[in-house]
Amino acid sequence: MTDSRLTISRRTVLAAGLAAPFATLPILSSPARAQRASGILRYGLSAFPPNLQPWVSTGASAGTVKMLIHRSLVSYGPNGELRGELATSWSLDGDGAWVFKLRPGCLFHNGDPVTAEDVKWSIEQIAGEKSTAYMRTQFQEVVRIDMPDPATIRLVTKTPQATLPSWFGNYNTFILSRKSTPTDWIGAGPFRLVGQERGTSVEIAAFDKFYKPGFPKLKGIKFVAYADENLRYAALQSGDVDMIEYVPWQSMDAVESNPRLKLDNQEGPFMDVLFNGSKPPFNDPRVRRAVAHAVRRDDIVKVAFFGRGKPLEGLPIVEGTPWWDKELAHGWNYDPARAKALLTEAGFGNGFQTTLLATAQFGMHKDTAEIVQQHLAAIGIQCELQLPDWSTRVSRGSRGQYDMAIHGVSSDNNDPDGLTVVLDTTLSPSHGRSFKVDAPRTIAALAKGRAEFDQAKRVEIYKEMQRAALEEVPLVGLAWRSQGYGMDKGVMGFTNLPGALSNSSGNMLEETYFG
C-alpha cells in the first residue's frame, strides 16, 4: 500500500451522481450565496496534498482531506477528548489487553459493513515489515489481535500501553476495507473522494450512508490549494473561498476586524529544528545543544508570527499542565557563549559549513529558517538555506537528505506521549522528526511513561524524559505559534481543536454548515 499516486477509481467517480454538485463550480468565481445554497464549502488549503496515502504522513493539509474520507476507531471531539467513531467503547480487560466494541451499522464507501476483520487487516498493513506507515512502530507492539465476534477487537501488546486508544486518534491511522488496493483505498468517512485537479484542487462529496445520522451537514467540500499564503488570505477576503487554514499571522488582525469574517485561533503547534544524526557534525549531541543555545527565540515570534506566539526554550510541554516544569522549560535558553563553548568542546571551535532545509511555500518556515541562519552564523555555523516546495521538503526530510531542517508541527495530542511522534527517532523515517539521531534515554522514558497507568508516577517519568531530551537533543524547540482558521461568519459548527490537536481540526468539517 505504498503507491504515492492520488488515484480515484472509475467506480468511485461514477457512483450515484456524487460528482454532480461540482459540475458548475469554478475555483474562484462562484458567488457566496449560490455556494451556500448548494451546500458546498470552498476551503483554501495551504498545500496540495503530495498524496493521500491513508497511513503515511505528508502534512496537515493532506491530513485534513484524509480525516474526512476515512475514519478510525476513535477521533477527538470539540473538547479535545477522545470520542468513539467506528468503535463505541474501549476498555482494558483483566489481562491488560485493550478491547474495542465496534459501532453497529458502519459502512464503507463500497457499501460493505465495517467488521473486526477489516480492523485486523488495517492494523496488519500499518505494522507490516515493509510498511511506510507513520504509526508502524507503535502498532508493531501489538502481538496478537483476537476477534471474539465480528464486532469486537482485542489487542494484546508486548508491554502495557496506557495510551493505546490515542494511536487510533492520529490522522494517519484509519480503518480501511480489506478489499482496498494500492490505488483504491476504501474508507468509511463522512465524505468520499470524487475528483481532483493535480496541484490545484480536491473535491469530496457527502457519503449518504455515514453512520452518524444527520452528518455530514455539508453536501460537499471543494479544497483549493493556495501555496502562497497571501493569495490564500486574499481569496478569503474577496469571498472566493468560505474558509482557509493557516491564516497568515500578519493577516490575523485584518480577519478579526473584518465584519464579514471571523478567526478561530489556538496555540499548540510549534516550530523546531531537526537534525540528520547519521553523520558529523550533528551526530554529536554537544553540537545539537550548541544550536539549541544559539537562537534568540523572541526574534522568531516577532518576525515569523507577528507576536502571535511565544518562545519555546525546551520541549513543547504546555504551561499549566502537570508535566510542565519552569526550570526544564528554559533548559535551552539563549546563551551564545555556552553555544560556542559546546562547539569548542566538540572539536568545532572554528565553526563549520552546513545546510538548513526549509520551504519557501510557508512563510513561517522560511522566516524561521532565516532567523536561525543568522543566529547560527554568530557562533560560527554557516548555513546554506535550501527552500524547495513543500512536496520536495517532505520527500527530502523522510529520506534524510539534509543536515538540519526547520519544521512546524504539533504533538499528536495533549498528553506527553503525543510527543513520541516527534521525539522517538527509532520510529519509521518521517519529514517531521530528526533522522537517525541517537536519543536512548529520551526514548526509554517515553516508553516507561506509556506503560505506566498511575498519574503521579507518569508526571515524574515525563520530567525525567524532559531532562534526558535537554541533553540528547532529538529536536530543538523554537517557538509556540498561534494557528488560526479564518472563515466567513456564515460558516458554523467548526471548532479549532485545543492545543496540540489543532492540526487535527479538519475532522470538525463533518459538523460544519452554513448558518
Descriptive overview:
The chain has 17 helices and 19 strands. It is an alpha+beta fold. Strand 14, helix 13 and strand 15 (381-386) form a beta-alpha-beta unit. Helix 10 runs antiparallel to helix 13. The protein starts with 9 loop residues before the first helix and ends with a strand.
Multimeric organization: single chain
Number of beta strands = 19
Q: Strand fraction band?
A: 15-25%
Shape: globular
Whole-Å distance between the termini?
40 Å
Structural class: alpha+beta
- Percentage of residues in helical conformation: 25-40%
Key structural traits:
single chain; 515 residues; alpha+beta; 11-stranded mixed beta sheet; 4-stranded antiparallel beta sheet; 17 helices; 19 strands; 29% helix; 22% strand; globular; disordered N terminus
Question: How do the helices and strands line up, and which of them pair or pack?
Answer:
Elements: H1 10-14, H2 32-38, E1 40-45, H3 60-69, E2 74-76, E3 82-84, E4 87-92, E5 98-102, H4 116-127, H5 136-139, E6 142-149, E7 152-157, H6 164-167, E8 191-197, E9 201-206, E10 220-225, H7 229-238, E11 243-244, H8 252-257, E12 261-275, H9 285-294, H10 297-305, E13 309-311, H11 326-329, H12 336-345, E14 352-357, H13 363-377, E15 381-386, H14 390-399, E16 404-409, H15 420-423, H16 440-450, H17 455-472, E17 476-488, E18 491-492, E19 513-514
Parallel strand pairs: 1-10, 1-11, 14-15, 14-16
Antiparallel strand pairs: 2-3, 4-5, 5-7, 6-7, 8-9, 9-10, 11-17, 12-16, 12-17, 13-17, 18-19
Helix pairs in contact: 9-12, 10-13, 16-17
